Amino acid sequence: MPDEIDLLGRLVAIPSVSGQEETLAVFTEATAHHLGLRVRRDDLAVTVEVPGRAPGPTLALVSHLDVVPPGEGWTRDPFTPTVEGTRLYGRGSGDAKASVAAMLCAAADVAARGGPARGRLLVLLGYGEETRHTTMERAVEMAGGIEAALVGEPTNLDFAVAQRGLMMVDLLAEGDQRHAGYAAADGEFRNAALVLARDLLKLDGLFDERSHPVLGHTTATPTMLEAGVSRNVTPPLARAVLDVRSTPDWTHEEVADLLRRTLTSNVVVTSERLVPCETPRNSRLLAAARRVRPRSKPFGSPTCSDWVFLRHADAVKCGPGTSRRSHTPDEYVDLPEVTAARAFYAEVVLAYLTEGDVGHIDEPAHAR
Asked: Are residues 21 and 105 in the same domain?
């Protein structure tokens, strides 16, 4: 049988910064063939299928092949996998090549046991997840019906049962341009910088009216500011970029409406497609995951992922690695977690695709 640690090292050794995944995709396809798996590679994903012995639902193991650029601050070569003790260092080691390695090996394990009792297992490994150009939305559409999904992202093998959405908003404050020496002159005058500053102060606690039981409050965080023509000229325009991390308690339309009713600045929504997600109440997938790994804990994830394209499914985000290490210099993953993930994914697949029919579930897991 394949070794998940050796495979992880091989994956890390192939640079796959977003937009440059082809070499890794070709290697992943060849690896799946070598493992005796049914595999297809196209411009959307590398897709592995393990059919069941009888008709039934589809369970997908979902992750991505791309990584963010290495950046600065590394003390090791980012694309030379380095094992020190129980850690493997390298860009993408945790986010999310550890999940990829574990999922491929788990699929081989399931196939070696004759496949699932019914339904089918899919492994969907997409491209561009770290950018706005992710291919997963279209890959999910082309895969046919998916009733359940385990999304492989670093969670230390705990169960993310809710995930914040992401909304990007520009605040545009308008003012009057004049010589700063006349800023106190009589008559109507607005300094765009002050208009924007007053609006930014109003953001504190703006969404506290509703609190999600897992994710808490929706937040709007200013991340970029710009204004000014010259040091002695009042700005006619001031701009702030807001990073809004939403919860299922607020639709993105409601967020935008509240901002517009509260603030003086013009509110321009620049991105709203990454809506929040949560695991359904009475989730059969979560129940199976808890039986396989009872010590894992449910939690709310502050980061986005391709889960957003599987909101229709019974889904949980779970994978080896620590989210706070993602995108950092000297990124690493704890190797025992990778081995545990391999066993976890395989056992959940076999458990889920053995039980009875999947009914329609539309209530969140936190409501139990």
From this structure: yes
Work out how many domains the chain is built from and give that number.
Answer: 2
Distance between CA atoms of 307 and 24, rounded to whole angstroms?
Answer: 22
Q: If we measure between CA atoms, which residue out of 170, 167, 133, 169 comes closest to residue 273?
A: 167
Q: pLDDT band for position 344 (50/70/90)?
A: very high
Query: What is the distance between the alpha carbons of residues 192 and 174, in angstroms, rounded to a whole number?
Result: 5
- CATH number, residue 215: 3.30.70.360
pLDDT at residue 166, rounded to an integer: 95
Of 254, 274, 294, which residue sits at a domain end?
A: 274
- Average pLDDT on 181-192 reads 80
Domain boundary among 236, 252, 274: 274
Domain housing 256: 165-274
> Residue 187, class by beta-carbon neighbours within 10 Å (0-12 exposed, 13-18 middle, 19+ buried)?
exposed
Contact 103, 32 (CB under 8 A): no
CB neighbours of residue 38 within 10 Å: 14
134-to-145, 195, 273 alpha-carbon distances in Å: 20, 37, 12
Closest CA to 317 of 344, 343, 279: 279
Residue 171: enclosing H or E segment and its boundaries?
Answer: strand 165-174
Residue 82 phi/psi, 5-degree rounding, is -125, 120
